[in-house]
UniProtKB/TrEMBL annotation:
Transmembrane feature ranges: 290-312, 324-345, 381-403, 415-438
Superkingdom of origin: Bacteria
InterPro entries from the UniProt entry: PI-PLC_domain, PLC-like_Pdiesterase_TIM-brl
Organism: Streptomyces californicus
Short name of any one Pfam family annotated for the protein: PI-PLC_X
PANTHER family, sorted: PLC-LIKE PHOSPHODIESTERASE, PTHR13593
Full protein name: Integral membrane protein
Protein keywords: Membrane, Transmembrane, Transmembrane helix
Upper taxonomic lineage: Bacteria, Bacillati, Actinomycetota, Actinomycetes, Kitasatosporales
Length: 739
């Protein structure tokens, strides 16, 4: 008759006797060694998976909306102006031109790309993937945007100087360089003589000499005064320019060429010359190398400690399980305590920002530090929890075998050893793997922020470009936007109102010119173009009323939108088409542009909720297309006014703006806010007023309250004037918080 297994009471367990020959000290040392080594593995894994992970830094920047705050808080802070001016000194353009068009010159996607480039360089250096730290900024995108901005604002001026319909910027630049060389070498430009009185000549000489280095003024004064008194302004200017340009221009050009080598700005050299301590990164790299070796050593010792605990443990296998579990659980508790203590000691800051920093910069840096430490602490606690869970599982299994063996099927010693080894190793592997795998990584941005991914399409707000194709860049008569369509997307526009046409015949123009959108001057210019027998052009076009007033080919424009979407895989774009061509032709144009894989098909029922932004991004179907007239036959081509409603749009002054129902009636899921002034054409002056951030927010909230639905599309003229984009960002941020 077999003996019954011994059952222990639920109270304290009897103290185990050590196995013969094992001694009492070795198990204690093995226990302590295991606890310390598992803790070391957890902490080193946490540090390496945060400090050397590009995803960690990208996650912190996105969680704190750093890119939005850069434009909305930092760059508008008056106290940051000296730093901004110093940075702009590297760009050969007027400061005011850049700062007033900052999102055109340096759009948010470009800032993100440049930032991620530096993060990759630094973390790669810290990990040892790169032997040398080189922080370089590719300024080609910025310089291209500056060139486009110059074409937008100076194209007409250059064309007028050259007597051409289209400006030749290369020739203009060459002519300007030649003129500067003439001045630099003291050759007088071809200017008529200008008779001056003696007093006028003296005052003019004072003005000219004010630009000359002080050490040269005395020697130059007689020459300049003599020339001016004779009315020879050209010679006076040449003498002045030669002195001014001989030092300043040449040195500035040399500095610029040195700084921007092949369109690349080497920040490493720049930071080194300004005295910034880059040795800290070298020390951090050495520390990470040491941590890597420490982690490998600790992992080996932890495995040895666990094995020693098993083989030197009590005779009862169940108690050995408990001993292993207790060691892992203690390591988890010690890791958690170390992480919480470190977070408490730092107080959310790794360093104190200097008092000389602008308040907006200090606030942003402090928030980034706090967020980074919070996420690092969360990663460390995840590793601690893994060790605690593994330890609790082993302890519970051993306790159950000891206390209730009559109700359990006791495994064989071999099976028990295998189980113990498997759980212990899994817990140790979890401590090692959890931080890098489940630690913070760059979240997927939706409309520029990860917090918006859970918003439904019909809950988000989108900056909408009214008559997006009618641009200064594409030389429309009476343009309503300045940059071209791609640049508009780069500056934050996410919905485009486009007008599709066939090129009109001469007899079609008279009726179209009766539209109040055209001023008498515009009618005269268009009629003049028609009088030159400009024949109709085949194909499909994006025009604003009359194609001879400006036109962009439809298929290439659509292809450009598709290329932009593929370059920005987490963005969603909506097209609202004023369709003067048939739906079948529209479908063929989208197919010819290669957009089939991007088109989103709305639910046939307009009352059904839309998918979330994250779901649309995951599907890859990120281009939504509505028509003002058509409704199909393509399933993705739906009539906007079945799904959406709008406000009136023929406002002649800001005071006339209302939220009254217009096309689409009321009660629809999508809401288009027409927010522009049409008074014999678009009004830049009114756009500067109504596109102001507070004005847009005030009207959007008033219309939301009146119509009982969130505003989705805020359609404005001149999207780069004012801060309608900032208002849209604020609406989305608040909706994400409420969601």
């Amino acid at each position: 008759m077999s003996a019954e297994p011994t059952a222990y009471p639920l109270g304290p367990l009897p103290s185990p006797e050590p196995r013969p020959g094992s001694g009492r000290l070795l198990p204690v040392l093995a226990f302590v060694l295991t606890v310390l080594c598992v803790t070391t593995v957890a902490l080193t894994s946490t540090v390496r998976s945060t400090a050397a992970s590009p995803g960690f830094y990208q996650a912190v920047l996105d969680e704190e909306s750093a890119y939005d705050r850069l434009y909305g808080e930092v760059l508008v802070d008056p106290e940051i102006a000296p730093v901004t001016r110093d940075l702009l000194a590297h760009l050969p353009v007027p400061e005011a031109l850049v700062t007033s068009n900052i999102k055109v010159v340096l759009p948010p996607p470009t800032v993100r790309a440049l930032t991620e480039q530096q993060i990759e360089a630094v973390t790669g250096y810290l990990r040892g993937d790169r032997d040398e730290l080189r922080l370089t900024v590719d300024l080609d995108p910025v310089l291209k945007n500056l060139a486009e901005l110059a074409r937008v604002y100076f194209g007409d001026l250059v064309a007028g100087i050259q007597g051409r319909d289209q400006p030749d910027f290369e020739r203009f630049t060459a002519d300007l360089a030649a003129a500067l060389d003439d001045l630099r070498n003291g050759r007088a430009p071809a200017l008529p003589r200008l008779p001056l009185t003696e007093d006028q000549a003296d005052r003019a000489a004072d003005v000219l000499l004010g630009a000359v280095p002080e050490r040269q003024r005395t020697a130059l004064r007689p020459e300049i005064e003599a020339a001016l008194r004779e009315g020879d302004v050209a010679t006076g200017l040449a003498a002045t320019a030669a002195a001014v340009l001989s030092d300043g221009s040449r040195s500035a050009a040399a500095d610029l060429r040195t700084t921007l080598q092949d369109g690349t700005w080497d920040l490493t050299d720049t930071l080194g010359m300004t005295g910034d301590d880059l040795d800290a990164l070298e020390r951090a790299r050495d520390a990470l190398r040491f941590l890597t070796l420490l982690q490998i050593s600790a992992l080996a010792l932890a495995l040895a400690g666990l094995a020693t605990l098993w083989f030197t443990g009590p005779a009862a296998p169940a108690r050995r399980l408990m001993r292993l579990g207790q060691a892992l659980a203690c390591a988890g508790g010690l890791t958690a305590a170390a992480v919480l203590l470190a977070r408490l000691i730092t107080g959310g800051r790794l360093f104190t920002t200097p008092s000389t920093w602008a308040p907006s910069v200090t606030a942003l840096v402090d928030d980034l530090q706090r967020n980074a430490l919070d996420q690092a602490a969360a990663t460390g606690l995840g590793a601690a929890l893994t060790a605690l869970a593994g330890g609790a599982l082993l302890t519970a299994a051993g306790w159950a075998l000891l206390v209730r063996p009559d109700r359990l099927r006791v495994p064989t010693p071999t099976a028990l050893r295998t189980t113990a080894a498997g759980v212990a190793c899994a817990a140790l592997a979890g401590v090692l793997v959890v931080p890098p795998v489940f630690g913070p990584s760059a979240p997927r941005p939706c409309l520029g922020g990860s917090r918006l991914c859970d918003l439904r399409y019909d809950e988000a707000a989108y900056l909408t470009s009214h008559n997006a194709m009618s641009t200064t860049a594409d030389r429309f008569i009476g343009p309503l936007q300045d940059p071209d369509i791609t640049t508009q997307l780069n500056t934050g526009v996410r919905a485009l109102q486009l007008d599709t046409y066939r090129w009109e015949r001469p007899q079609d123009i008279a009726a179209r010119l009766d539209s109040p959108e055209f001023t008498p001057e515009q009618r005269r210019l268009i009629s003049g173009a028609v009088d030159k027998a400009n024949p109709p052009r085949p194909g499909l076009w994006l025009c604003h009323g009359v194609c001879r007033a400006g036109a962009v080919e439809l298929v290439p424009a659509l292809k450009g939108i598709g290329d932009w979407l593929r370059d920005h895989p987490t963005e969603i774009v909506t097209l609202i088409v004023q369709d003067d061509i048939g739906p079948e032709e529209t479908e063929e144009a989208f197919h010819a542009a290669g957009l089939d894989d991007l088109l989103h098909t709305p639910d046939p029922d307009p009352d059904e909720p839309w998918p979330t932004l994250g779901e649309m991004i995951d599907s890859g179907r990120r281009l939504v297309v509505f028509a003002e007239k058509a409704d199909g036959p393509a399933p993705w081509y739906r009539n906007f006014y079945r799904y959406g409603m709008e406000t009136p749009f023929a406002f002649r002054s800001p005071s006339e703006m209302t939220c009254a129902p217009h096309r689409g009636g009321t009660g629809k899921r999508l809401f288009l806010l027409n927010h522009f002034i049409t008074n014999a054409g678009g009004s830049r002056l009114d756009a500067g007023r109504v596109n102001a951030r507070d004005w847009v927010l005030e009207r959007a909230r008033a219309c939301e309250a009146q119509r009982g639905s969130p505003v989705n599309f805020i359609a404005v003229d001149y999207t780069t004037i004012g801060d309608a984009a900032g208002a849209v960002d604020e609406l989305n941020s608040r909706r994400a918080e409420e969601d």
